[in-house]
């Protein structure tokens, strides 16, 4: 998405929030990673497409694994934006999972940029860094702020890497909470 398109999307989101079109209180009731039907997702949410999807004739294609911005439901279809900033439509009952904006940005990078990427992402007060191993064709990451402990995570794609990072942080926090 170009900087101009991103600004236009941010402006649209701000205007819709001011008009009360987004029930931001509902966002907390749908944790990231849960599979839900799109019509149950709060407006103004980033989602990953998990299931097959019928799109209207002449509408841009949406593939399983695509991360898009969901604005609202309009009849049996939704009003969303893809990485190019185009309006795309999912059926209201499409299976999706909620993701954060950082995952939307990373997942929609061109593949050649992903291969040279050094990722540094915050989550629940922790930061993870990762680099791409061209030989293994996967990302290897670790938490950077937990010395002397070592926690690592791996993913073949950026979305897979982000999920592995979140899982590693959650497991580490559970481990710390248990006092082990």
Describe the structure.
29% of the residues lie in helices and 29% in strands. It has 180 residues and is of the alpha+beta class. The chain has two domains: 3-100, SH3 type barrels, CATH 2.30.30.30; 109-177, no CATH class. Strands 1-6-2-3-4-5 form a six-stranded antiparallel β-sheet. Strands 7-8-9-10 form a four-stranded antiparallel β-sheet, with helices on one face. A hairpin with a 2-residue loop joins strand 7 (118-123) and strand 8 (126-133). The longest helix has 20 residues, at 158-177. The chain is elongated and about 55 Å long. Residues 21-31 have low confidence and may be disordered.
Describe this protein with a few key phrases:
six-stranded antiparallel sheet, four-stranded antiparallel sheet, alpha+beta, 2 domains, elongated, SH3 type barrels
Q: What gross morphology would you assign?
A: elongated
Q: Beta-strand percentage?
A: 25-35%
Q: Quaternary arrangement of the chains shown?
A: single chain
According to DSSP, the number of beta strands is: 10
Helix share bin? 25-40%
Over the alpha carbons, how many angstroms does the gyration radius reach? 18 Å
- Uncertain stretches of 5 or more adjacent residues: 21-31
- Which fold name fills CATH's third level, the topology of the largest domain? SH3 type barrels
**Element-level helix/strand string:** HHEEEEEEHHEEEEH
């Amino acid at each position: 998405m170009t900087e101009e398109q991103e600004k236009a999307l941010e402006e649209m989101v701000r205007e819709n929030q001011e008009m009360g079109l987004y029930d931001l209180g509902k966002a907390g009731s749908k944790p990231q990673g849960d599979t839900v039907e799109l019509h149950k997702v709060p407006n103004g949410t980033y989602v990953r497409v998990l299931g097959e999807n019928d799109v209207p004739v002449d509408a841009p294609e949406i593939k399983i694994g695509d991360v898009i911005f969901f604005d609202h439901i309009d009849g049996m279809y939704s009003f969303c934006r893809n990485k190019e900033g185009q309006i795309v439509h999912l059926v209201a009952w499409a299976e999706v999972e909620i993701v954060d904006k950082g995952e939307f940005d990373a997942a929609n990078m061109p593949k050649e940029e992903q291969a040279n990427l050094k990722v540094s992402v915050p989550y629940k007060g922790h930061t993870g860094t990762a680099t791409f191993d061209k030989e293994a064709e996967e990302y290897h990451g670790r938490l950077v702020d937990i010395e002397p402990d070592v926690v690592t995570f791996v993913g073949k794609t950026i979305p897979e890497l982000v999920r592995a990072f979140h899982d590693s942080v959650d497991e580490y926090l559970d481990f710390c909470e248990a006092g082990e």
